[in-house]
Amino acid sequence: MSTPIGTHAMLPQANHDEMAEQLFARDLKIWLGSEVEPLQGQLADAIDPGPQHNDRDAEAFARLHEEPAFLGWAGMFRAAQELMWDDIYRSVHRQKDALNAKAAQAADIGSVTIDPDFTAPAYLVDGHVHMMPGGYALNGDDVTQGAVMDRGGAVYMLGRNGGFMNDGRGATVAGHVFAEYPDLKPLKILELGCGTGASIVPVARAFPDAETYGIDVGSSVLRYAHARASHLGVPVHFVQGDAEHAPFEDESFDLVFSAALFHETSETAIPQILAESYRLLKPGGVVVHLEVPARYDQLNLWAQIRAQVERDYNNEPAWQVATSADYDALMRSAGFADPKIGYQDACFAPAPGQGGFGPESKGVFRSWFIASGRK
Amino acid sequence: MDKTPYTAGRREITGLSVLEDQALAMIAALASELAVARERIDTLERMLEDKGAIDRTLIDSYAPDAAAAAERDGIRQRMIAKIFRPLRDATRRAIQEKTA
Questions:
Q1: Methyltransferase domain location, by residue (chain A) (predicted)?
Q2: First vs last Cα of chain A: how many Å apart?
Q3: Domain A1-375 has CATH 3.40.50.150
Q4: Among the ranges given (A43-52, A172-181, A309-318, B89-98), the one the predictor scored with the smallest mean pLDDT
């Protein structure tokens, strides 16, 4: 973060002290992860009810809550996250006039469409994902909530996903299309749950002939996303909408994708979003849903507990559900006859002719889980 | 400064008392504040050293004038608001729960 590789005009800046605060939050998280978490794993093994227990992971999670050492770690884990948001919120709002002025100077490309009657899904309103104050759905006539989300995302990802551009997931979606659907020449693309547009920008750049759309739930985040993409010279149409009920006609798109969306939704939303993807695609169109590479049943005990920590204490409500789902069955139920389920190598420079898709994960930030298919 | 929006869906960590939760958060913030201060001092000392401008013995005898004192009041008050934020946030959550 101190030497960012690639940045963009809308990214909120950090002055001397703000940078020190953000680096502190990042390094506290790294320290907790590298120095304390392995010990928590050993503690989990020590209280493990054993593989014969019929509810092993939940029981171990409950037993850990009787251990002060676990409680101290869990409390500080969340305190570090909340501190990070507080740092970033103050920094962004200090410079909000400059950010809004910068947004107003963006090239006149793409668009933002706000729906004044829009209602965000309950799972995003009742629990603010990642503990971000105000949540994704916060409506506002300025760009500040998007700026908080973007800067927070860059700090939160600890520089592992493309630094301040945070674009590794989008690039990997494009890479998957090149690898597995080389004949696809999309002319209309939609991202479900586009956030600040970090993923849609590399996809739009990979397919410059396409008209590109992104939907998300909060007007401030969408306004920021539009300014961000426009300053990067990438025309994207940002529309306020819900991935379960996207505001587009049937068979509107050649490529529909999401990038790490499912684990921030709900058990009932996931099949509905898959069905919606099918509805939105033209015949022959392709859907690509990218998710975190972890598969819950393949995780060791501590990693399963860590997933429950994310679910309960970092407001990623569907983390366990999204990493446990049978995507082959769900994709088939949604109408995709021959889904591809596997792992795409993380890439930052997607290109025609590439490969990189296979049945094995190479690990976090080296691979992404993919469920894709053709209508 | 705009008030930070409410964070919906914050669950209690079973077994961690509310006051312990707040204390951990305050310690994290304090440590952050200390890190920032240390980094700023480090920046200053390096810049001054580079310019050959520093006489460190004068630091101990420095007395701020009125304007500097007022500015330092602001720095200190911002630090207090940051460190003790969990008390404010917990109260706001309690109010939210009582009035929801």
A1: 189-285
A2: 41
A3: yes
A4: B89-98
